[in-house]
Design goal:
Blueprint lengths: L1 E5 L4 H5 L2 H10 L4 E6 L1 H7 L7 E4 L5 H18 L3 E4 L4 H9 L4 E5 L10 E3 L10 H5 L24 H13 L8 E5 L11 H14 L4 E5 L5 H14 L7 E3 L4 H9 L3 E5 L2 H6 L6 E5 L4 H4 L9 E5 L19 H4 L3 H17 L6
Parallel strand pairs: 1-2, 1-4, 2-3, 4-5, 5-6, 7-8, 7-10, 8-9, 10-11, 11-12
């Protein structure tokens, strides 16, 4: 049986499909599993041991997009897939699923696109408290993969030996070794609705170092926010010289981020792709949730690996669709107290000390 999986983007959404990949391989060990993804998120599934093939389709605009889609449609059709599953639900993924010509095509029931599938599955509400992994599970029900259990089917991203080597060298050059518990803090987000205020991050970093001066805090960010991360390091060092030796910023790609996080005592960050990459390790995680719900996006993995969510509590405007802040002050983020984040980080790190853990 040849199975085509289509999930074009984003990084976190691709991470959330990996339990399905694992479950399909377990239930159908002889199947040929192909995965269609756009280049920006391909690193998540590249090297996945349960996949036979990664098909990267470029993401371009205008006439180039039409040319690409027609070419890839013809390519997929020639491959004669038996089953095609649209894990994305957008217009492009629906088109590629339909164009594959697979006799069984599964996707979400969506106005204007349901006709492209032989099996159209009701789509859960985007803002509801159901976890993103569970929302997708009905799409593979026709393939009899059974129930979804995070202990058995966690999110995955393969370790990259080259990236691990680069992280090893960077840590050595920075003078960070086993005597320095490592705290990784992701300080950026794709939009202002998920961006915790810089003064809050500064207070978090200073307090973590004050409690244990031997800690080393590494601030990471997306490429577009590298300047903000460097400014935050300067802010902390300028206002709190006692913490200057403990704070670093590093530019890293997603494979390096995973390698760095796998070595950390804790990862702290908002609900964005890097949080979900952190979830593919066994490192304790503290997630900051503003307009989104923790029930939807917390690490999907073995509960032995601790994770906590911190949010602003019940608000009439939360969750929201992140288009307009109704109160105008992003209170779902600004009301997340740094002291609560520090306390959560200390708790998850303490849980590690109470039970032996091997980082992966």
């Amino acid at each position: 049986m040849k199975v085509l999986l289509v999930r074009l983007r984003l990084i976190g959404d691709v991470v959330f499909t990996t339990p399905i990949v694992r479950a399909l391989r377990r239930r159908h060990p002889d199947a040929h599993l192909s995965y269609v993804v756009e280049p920006m998120a391909a690193v998540v599934v590249r090297g996945n041991p349960h996949l036979d093939e990664i098909i990267e389709v470029p993401r371009r605009g205008g006439l180039a997009r039409w040319h690409d889609d027609l070419r890839w449609a013809a390519t997929l059709r020639r491959r004669r897939f038996d089953v095609a599953i649209d894990l994305h639900g957008g217009p492009r993924s629906a088109w590629l699923t339909w164009a594959s010509g697979a006799p069984i095509r599964i996707g979400y029931r969506t106005r204007g696109r349901s006709w492209m599938y032989t099996h159209a599955v009701p789509r859960p509400a985007d803002l509801g408290p159901l976890h993103s992994v569970l929302k997708q599970w009905p799409l593979v029900a026709p393939l009899d993969v059974g129930s979804c259990d995070p202990s058995r089917d966690p999110v995955e991203m393969p370790a990259d030996a080259a990236a691990d080597g680069r992280v090893t060298r960077w840590l050595a050059d920075a003078g960070i070794d086993s005597r320095n518990p490592l705290v990784v803090v992701h300080v950026s987000a794709g939009n202002p609705f998920r961006r915790w205020p810089p003064p809050h991050f500064a207070a978090l970093v200073v307090e973590l170092v004050r409690r244990r001066p031997e800690r080393r805090v590494v601030l990471v960010s997306g490429p577009s926010d590298a300047g903000a991360a460097r400014a935050l390091v300067e802010q902390v060092c300028g206002a709190h010289p006692e913490a200057a030796a403990a704070v670093r910023h590093v530019d890293c790609d997603l494979a390096e981020l995973r390698a760095l996080t796998a070595r950390a005592a804790v990862y702290i960050g908002g609900d964005s792709g890097p949080l979900h990459i952190a979830a593919t390790t066994t490192t304790p995680v503290v997630g900051l949730f503003g307009p989104t719900l923790a029930e939807r996006s917390m690490p999907w993995r073995d509960p032995r690996w601790p994770a906590e969510a911190v949010d602003a509590g019940p608000l009439p405007c939360r969750p929201c669709r992140q288009r307009t802040c109704a109160p105008g002050d992003f209170r779902c983020l600004t009301r997340i107290d740094p002291a609560r984040v520090v306390a959560a980080a200390e708790r998850v790190m303490q849980q590690v000390h109470q039970a032996p853990m091997v980082h992966a």
